[in-house]
Amino acid sequence: MEKEILLNQLNKSQIELRKYASEIAKTSVLEERTRIARDMHDNIGHSLTALQIQLRKAQAFFDIDSNESKTAINAAIEVATSSLQDTRAVLNDLTQSDTKFSMEKKIKPIISTLKQSGIEVEESIEKEDSSCNYATLIALFRVIQEGSTNIIKHSNANKVSIKLNYTKEEAHLIIEDNGIGFDSEKYYETKDKKGLGLVGLAERFELIRGSFKINSECGKGTIIIATAPKNPVKIIGEN
């Protein structure tokens, strides 16, 4: 009798485990689709903004200064080429931790676009720590990318500061501009309706057990603060 009870319990446990495994598989597929959609949005959104800026500049100088117009067109071509490479990288599985990643190389065209938009840039970017997980590096890069796009499109800022440094356990990023700002409290109240941009960044940092905060007031500029563990896999495992 006791043996039958144990067998029944074992069968029930196996059924529950199969259901659980099935749910994990479904969740993994959904998370992967979300990740790809987010990465595509981040890449394409920033690149199209940069392209628009350079092409408008080329158009404005077309009849005034042909050399300046050609320079803008060449910059647009570089942006398009870089965007194509990044899009291919997304489709080639961005989540692999052994993927080579150079923060300095990746943010160089972003800094260039900010400066070409008439924005003074103060940058302090530490060389990426070799112990820093790829998921953390890509999350930090997306903040710089999306934050810069928003500064160019919406802030009316003429100065921006980008600071990235690493401690023993964490990576810290601060982006600050002197633009028109906005009511960040209302953003947090309605962020589910804002689309993939800043919401996607918050989700990224939740996944890697980091933090993402936007501080802004109308007329007082905006500060973005992002912190993430250098080894999120270890943190997740311990928890």
Question: Overview of this structure, please?
Answer:
- With 239 residues, the chain is an alpha+beta fold.
- It folds into two domains: 94 residues; 142 residues, 2-Layer Sandwich (Heat Shock Protein 90), CATH 3.30.565.10.
- It is built from seven helices and five strands.
- Strands 1-2-3-5-4 form a five-stranded mixed β-sheet.
- Strand 4 and strand 5 form a beta hairpin.
Helix fraction, binned, reads 55-70%
Number of DSSP-assigned strands: 5
- CATH class descriptor name of the largest domain: Alpha Beta
CATH topology descriptor of the largest domain: Heat Shock Protein 90
Tell me the count of domains: 2
Number of helices: 7
Question: Strand order of the main beta sheet, please?
Answer: 1-2-3-5-4
Q: What CATH architecture of the largest domain do you see?
A: 2-Layer Sandwich
Q: What are the segments in which pLDDT stays under 50 over at least 5 consecutive residues?
A: 94-98, 192-196
User: What share of residues are in beta strands?
Assistant: 15-25%
- Report the biggest beta sheet as strand number plus sense, adding barrel if it closes: 5 strands, mixed
Write the layout of secondary structure elements.
Layout: H1 2-61, H2 66-91, H3 103-116, E1 120-125, H4 134-155, E2 159-166, E3 170-177, H5 184-190, H6 197-207, E4 211-216, E5 222-229, H7 232-238
Helix pairs in contact: 1-2, 1-4, 3-4, 4-6
Give a short overview:
62% of the residues lie in helices and 15% in strands. With 239 residues, it is α+β, with helices and mostly antiparallel strands. The protein starts with a helix and ends with a helix.
